[in-house]
Amino acid sequence: FKLPSDSFKYLNWCDLEEHDVRGNQLLCPRIREAGPSEEELFFRGEEHTLKKRKQVTEAEKWQKKLQENWENCAELNLSYQDLGDPYQVENLNRILRRLIRVEKLWLVDNSLTDLSAIRLPRCKELNVNKNHFTSFKQLPKIPQIQHLSLSENNIMTLSGISALRHTPLESLTLKRNPCEFQENYRQLVFSSLPNLKTLDGVPQLPEDWSPPKIHFLSKLCTIL
Question: Which long-range contacts (CB under 8 A, 24 or more apart) does 82-87 make?
Answer without folding.
Answer: 82/32, 82/110, 82/111, 83/31, 83/32, 83/107, 83/110, 83/111, 83/112, 84/110, 84/111, 84/112, 84/113, 84/131, 84/132, 85/111, 87/33, 87/34
